[in-house]
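Proteins fold reproducibly. Take a tokenised chain:

. . .
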Amino acid sequence: MSRQLPPLYALRAFEAAARLCSFTRAAETLSITQSAVSRHVRTLETHFGCRLFIRQGRQLRLTEAARTLLPGVRDGFAALERACGTLRGEDEVLRMKAPSTLTMRWLLARLSRFRHLQPGNEVQLTSAWMEVDHVDFNHEPFDCAVLLSDGQFPADWEVRRLFAELLIPVCAPHVLAEAPWDAGRLAQTELLHPTPDRRDWRNWLARMGLSERVSIKGGQVFDTLELGMIAAARGYGVSMGDLLMVAEDVAAARLSLPWPTAVPSGLDYYLVWPRTRPGGERLHRLSAFLQQEALAMVLPEVEVLPVDA
């Protein structure tokens, strides 16, 4: 060859950064540091003698050269994944992607029990922060994923529903004991928002008929339910939580439910995988186990509103 190809690790970093328009999210996806992504991109820019990204404030914009390069790099990695997948076949490890809060609050313990009860069925879990739960099986190295979704998935995926997302306010036990809870007290309380767009509190208040009485302005904003619930447990305010994910903390008196009414968000957690992916029998065993675990959960005794039609 008259000219060598650039390093594959640099091309992988470029593809992730270009796809996500973020060095930070690319680093999270690839499990490396942001500075490593920057170095890899600079390696490519030196190799090609041109810039690939332009920063505009917090935004990352692709140059014309990057837009030209991206399709070929993306297709190349997809081809490599397919080629390696045919040789990997029925290896002993299922590679799973899942959102970070679900991982910490529910999934880790269940996968540990799955490995114990079914030796030889190893699951390698990657926890990822996702603004919108998503997996691209053509470009990401996963056999399956657990996603929070409205259930609209590609026709060639296997889909197993695990449980519904049930939104409910949570706080520290000592906060619960201070005084009776009503709309007036909630309006005076520091609300913790586990989503940047504050949609969880907005949905819950709307279903409860409290939108006009309780403002969602102000209050600390977090990226995940996990951070909101941790802040609530430490007494910084009242966060929106997920009933199933706080059940064990409520039972252990680490969290309390100031307003014991849960509202379906309209989204559910699903285990999904491509029908063509090797390891179908093990994936069916895993899905049956997780569904059984969800059904066996002992939830706090609260009112659960019906799904809003």
In short: The chain has eleven helices and ten strands. Residues 104 and 226 are 8 Å apart (CA to CA). The chain has two domains: 8-87, 93-304.
